[in-house]
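One example copied in:
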Amino acid sequence: MAEWKIGTPLLITDCHRGIYWGRFMARESDGSLMLSGVRHCYDYVPISPSHKGTYGLATGGPGDESRIGPAASEMRIHGIATETLCTPEAVERWKSAVWK
């Protein structure tokens, strides 16, 4: 597994099909991740046909019709399935996403 620097923006999926965006804080001994500024993606729409799926969320961010929850200051996520580095474009869209 990659070891991220503190503050690295990540898209996380878990074994229950949950999708989260936040900034890396720490990896716990049980494999869970601590994130800050965490946003939960309840439902998403790609920003374009070329940005489909969870990797599209990491490269382009959520589309305007996506349902993104408000930020939690910190969260521990268990059962990590994927950890994907986000692009600066995706970070801006995640930070500015509003619930629809």
